[in-house]
Amino acid sequence: MPPHLQIELEYEDEELARLDKRLANAQRNKKRGQSVQQVVNTAGGFKRLLLPAPQAPRRRKKSLIQQVQIWLARLGLAVVFCIMAGVVFWWQLSASLHPSLQL
Q1: CA 73, CA 79: separation in Å to the nearest integer?
Q2: In the chain, fewer beta carbons within 10 Å around the N or the C end?
Q3: DSSP string for residues in 15-49
Q4: What one-character DSSP code corresponds to residue 98?
């Protein structure tokens, strides 16, 4: 074989060995990355098992009848509180006008 072809063949062999080495390193790094990712996913899975599952808020729009019922209930409470305040105010006023009614 001519010397220049022998030199070219040796150079190609060295280049092939270098590329094989790079490929082996890349495969090792990929495998290591997959292992790390698997550990992270497993740890995340255990952590998710310990935490309560997040519940999305399920708020539906109330119907018109429900809204009216809510407002009537609020109005009823307001009326009851106003009546109570009126009774207390009337009792205080009548007690000051008629000392015999005081406790």
Answers
A1: 10
A2: C
A3: HHHHHHHHHHHHHHHHHHHHHHHHHHHHHHHHHHH
A4: -
- Name the phi and psi angles at 63, rounded to 5: -70, 170
- Residues 49 and 6 grouped into a single domain: yes
Q: How many domains does the chain have?
A: 2
Mean pLDDT of the region 32-37: 88
Separation CA 67–CA 94 (nearest Å): 40
Please state the rounded mean pLDDT for residues 9-16. Answer: 93
pLDDT score recorded for residue 38: 83
Range of the domain at 72: 61-103
Task: Estimate to the nearest angstrom the gap between the alpha carbon of 38 and the chain centroid.
Answer: 23
Same domain, 41 and 86: no
User: What average pLDDT does range 46-59 have in this prediction?
Assistant: 68
What confidence tens digit (pLDDT) does each residue in 59-93 have? 888 899 999 999 999 999 999 999 999 999 998 88
